[in-house]
Amino acid sequence: MIQFGTNPIAWANDDDQSLGADIPTERILEEAGRLIGFDGIENGHRWPQDDPQALMELLGGYGLTFVSGWHSMNVLAHSVEQEKQAIQPHLDKLKHNGCKVCIACETSNSIQGRDLPLSARPVLDAQGMKDFGAKVEEIAQYCADQGIALVYHHHMGTVVQSSEDIDAFMAATGPATKLLFDAGHCYFGGGDPAGILARHVSRVGHFHAKNVRPAIRAQVEANGLSFMDGVRAGVFTVPGDQEGGVDFEPLLRILKGYGYDGWIVIEAEQDPDQRNPLLYQTLGLHTLKRIARETGLI
């Protein structure tokens, strides 16, 4: 069953917590659950982090389920056994809340939160990617053995950013490792979202419906801006925004063709002082549901 979710990063940013700092937690949940009507919401720094039951009760009070949450991997710096130990508390929280996927991304050498141009991001050579993929696959199997699919998030500023990175990573991992396909990060990274999704749809376990403003993306590249500079400038937006460059119709059609059965999440961080989350998230959800009906996905 297709379910539609959101991420609190549209209201209160995790990486730059000054964005949305004045928005009450109750407002985020009220708008996401009762006013807009999302089925669920992903993790954010405002939620209880160490009490899975409190998390369930908080979100449930607004008609929301817990979709999943980000886990920062450090595979390139730690052993596989250390990484298994590090991920276990997160898996326990996910299992308690009935989650099916664990969102993971390598952050040991990421520049996504640093004041560096995106051109300075880390890159693995062919052997490095093979070694990295083998370790991720071990951890993914560890998650799968507990009933949770590890969905790897290709992300700007990390070792899996470009379309070539995504292809190499998927080739270096095995069946236990699933892909979190993020339309916005794919487009921002210079890839063709429809082409990449079509190549890897059989292993897509989670879908982030993020849009990109091409004009601001061009400014980020031309001026050597950091990832967070781009976020603050408004590089990301939601499906349906006429300033966005991502066409979601072919993407949802590809999902329909393969029989995708999972979450479609609007994870589109913007400055809430500049772009009202209630208005933009409503636009995004209505757009996705319209396209999903037209393509037969729902």
Question: How is this structure best described in words?
Answer:
The protein is α/β, with parallel strands linked by helices and 298 residues long. Helices cover 43% and strands 14% of the residues. It has eleven helices and eleven strands. The strands form two sheets. The protein has a nine-stranded parallel β-sheet with strand order 3-2-1-11-8-7-6-5-4. The protein has a two-stranded antiparallel sheet with strand order 9-10. Strand 6, helix 5 and strand 7 form a beta-alpha-beta unit. Helix 3 crosses helix 4, helix 4 crosses helix 5 and helix 7 runs parallel beside helix 10.
Shape: globular
Computed Rg: 18 Å
Largest sheet: 9 strands, parallel
Residue stretches low in confidence (pLDDT < 50, at least 5 long) are none
Distance between the termini: 8 Å
Q: Strand-residue fraction?
A: 5-15%
| Strand segment tally | 11
Helix and strand succession? EHEHEEHEHEHEHHEEHHEHEH
Widest sheet: strand ordering: 3-2-1-11-8-7-6-5-4
Mean pLDDT: 98
Q: Helical element count?
A: 11
Please identify the structural class as seen in this structure: alpha/beta
The percent range for helix content is 40-55%
